[in-house]
Every structure is written in structure tokens, then in C-alpha cells.
Amino acid sequence: PLQNEVGLLEFFQNVMKETRAEPKKVASWVLNTFLGFLKQQNLAVSESPVTPSALAELLNLVERKAISSSAAKQVFEELWRSEGKTPAQIVAEKQLELMQDDEALEQLCRATMEAHPQVVMDLKKGNPRAINKLIGLVRKATLGRADPTAIKEVLERQLSG
Fold first, then answer.
1. Domains and CATH numbers, the chain
2. Global confidence as pTM
3. What burial class does residue 26 get, using C-beta atoms within 10 Å of its C-beta: 0-12 exposed, 13-18 middle, 19+ buried?
4. Average pLDDT by consecutive 10-residue portion of the chain (161 residues)?
């Protein structure tokens, strides 16, 4: 599929030059997200408002776990709309960066569990949905800036501890 669109393979190769993301991940972004936006607006690859280096920078942010993949989609939409902004600028403006502060996350998880004893009870009784509810509550408290996997790890550690 990378061959059908004029310039798409070249776009992919240029992104690959500047990113540490795996080729599979890059291909998925180029074929799904990037191509989807092009088709929606009926644009050729050469007319794309998003450059290969902008997409590479965005993928590097995901790779470094600076942002989640759902935040990356938001950043991509913004890149598409507002030329001249870098992914990092958009992340900062929209406060999309993931919390890197483990201690803050630990405290938040503990506070969330203390505030919702019923959910914790359900969880201890073996209700698997309860953990998702807690993850949701913590994410809401962090404005969606904490990685769900990280939250889950912290919660499980605290529950077993």
C-alpha cells in the first residue's frame, strides 16, 4: 500500500530517518492517520501540512513516553490545522505531556483509593471492572496526563502492598 500513493514511500522513509520508532509503528501512522487525513481533504502527499520531520518528532515523543498515543492523535490533528507549530509546542500548550513524576502518581493513586473505598472493596472482592474505574478516576485527576498502564501498575502495587 505504501507504493500506490505518489510520494508516500518517500514520506515514510523521511520519517524513518528522524525517528526512533519502529518501522511498523511509523507505517501504521503513515498509512492510517496520515493517509486518512489526506484522503479526507483530497490532498496529495506533497500538499500535506504535516512534514515528515514533524511526524517523526511526534513519534519520538510517544516513543519517549512523553505523551500517550491518544494524545499523539490530538497533536497530529493540531499539526494538520496549524502549520508552523512543532509537536512539542502543541503538547506544551494543550498540556498533553504524561506525568513523569512517579511520586506524584503514587500519592494520587493512594488518595483516589482512600476517596473511593467502595471501589477498592469491589476490587478486593475480585470485580475486574473496579480497577478500570480507579484508573479512570486517577486519569481524570491528572487531566488524562497519566499513562493508564503506569496507573494500573501503581494501583496493583499499592493494593498488594
1. 8-94 (no CATH), 102-160 (1.10.10.410)
2. 0.69
3. buried
4. 77 96 95 94 92 96 87 93 88 83 86 93 90 90 81 89 72
